[in-house]
Amino acid sequence: MEKRSAPLLASACLALFLAGCATTQVGGGSATASRAEQNAAFAQASQLAAQRAGLTGQALSENTRQIQALLAGLDNATLTRETTGLAVGDPLYPLAGNVMLERNLPLPRPFDRGSKWNFDANGRPPADRDGYRPPLKLAVLLPLSGPMATAAGPVRDGLLAGYYGETRRRPEIKFYDTASTPADATNAYARAVTDGAEMVVGPLGREQVDAIFRQGTLSVPVLALNRGESEVPDGAASFSLAPEAEGVSVADYLLKLERKRVLVIGGSDDNGRRSSDAFRKRFTEGGGAVADVLTVGDAPADVSAPLIAAAAKNVDAIFLAVRGSTARALTPQLALAGLGGKTRVGTSLLIQGTGKPEEDNVLDGVIYPTEAWSASGVKGLPAQSMVAANLPTARGGAARLFAFGYDAWLLSAYMQKLTEGTTADLRGATGTLTLDGFGTVLRAPAWATFSGGTPVPISSGG
Asked: Residue 7 burial by CB count (10 A; 0-12/13-18/19+): exposed, middle or buried?
């Protein structure tokens, strides 16, 4: 009975808390009441977190949403103070710590990750001053054959570029073919363990990642190269270029620009849907409102009527989870609806179907997340144009996967720094990387826009 009433209690506390915040902003007379209300909100979040062990699926997602809503209303001082007071192993600490990471606040202590990483296994040499401490033996699980082999090629080459570009001690490295099925991945993992690997990078497929994670206790730590449906187990981490992550990044970007009402235009493909859903969730949790949602195909029909209706709702920004060719077709309709001058932000899908400046100049001013490697370069890796001149796997759309592979190498070599630090991050080829309280590698991307129909980086995110 208590679990069923928790959502109602959380909603009531949140409503009271938000009402208190509204009065606190105008004067200091209610500061004491505000602190009491914020403490009550944190206490309610703690009660909800205590229920998480018995929840799965949608119930767990709803529990997370309620806790995030409560924590979102706390000021930095309260969030830091109350999180610092949590005991080691408290189930609220990963969630509260993640909110601190989002606000660029230092963690009171590293996340509680157990002891499954075994950084001292087999007499591994101590870390260098910058945190570099790769394993002695590294296994890489990639689909070197089968339908995903094309995608795996740039990932493999990017990882090897980082590996051979390192002049210090490097691990013994061995690649294992995961082909195409979940069983292929679990078998490859078992072989890597038998061969004495101290860390495993991969697999790449989502179903294969799930197959590894569902094994529960992992005898050798894993850096998976995708997100699965399963929770990341102890002694593992998940790194991906998932559309959801870009949706979240764009939502945070627009919230920092203080945009309040957004029109979401998403593609009908899987990437468009996933990034749009993640954007809407994050943007509304941050206090923004989604005025309307439109789903369009690659060759969008006339959508002027819903665009005009959206314009009447005081939209101040537009989120475009569509390919560049689709965005070009939408641009005249946005202008006719009176939305042409609004802030427009897309995902990395935007660069697909582009490449001709005389056609792409209608996209001038549209902002989108990109890789640090292409925007400003990365220490230790030659410029993208130079690498692309010699490697087909670093050209065009494959360059993103090449950068992803390079960062997989960095993460394998600096994982101890990320897992045991309170302010640790890595400047990677895909962006700035951190590790959250649930084993997910977070990526803060670089940003770019179109100018004269040509992609150009935006200094410091715009």
From this structure: middle
pTM of the model: 0.86
The 10s digit of each residue's pLDDT in 416-435 is 999 998 888 999 999 999 99
User: For residue 290, what are the β-bridge partners?
Assistant: 262
Residue 227 shares a structural domain with residue 349: no
Nearest-angstrom CA–CA distance, 332 and 335: 5
Burial of 229 (0-12, 13-18, 19+ CB in 10 A): exposed
262 φ, ψ (degrees, to nearest 5): -120, 140
Q: Considering only 10-14, 266-270, 366-370, 378-382, which range has the smallest mean pLDDT?
A: 10-14
- C-alpha span between 190 and 46 (Å, rounded): 39
In a domain, 293, yes or no: yes
- Cβ neighbours of residue 359 under 8 Å, at least 6 residues apart? 328, 453
Least confident of 205-209, 214-218, 272-276: 214-218
Q: Which of 21, 7, 141 is nearest to 72 (CA)?
A: 21
Residues 267 and 220 in one domain: no
For the chain, percent of residues with pLDDT exceeding 90: 74
- CATH number, domain with residue 292: 3.40.50.2300
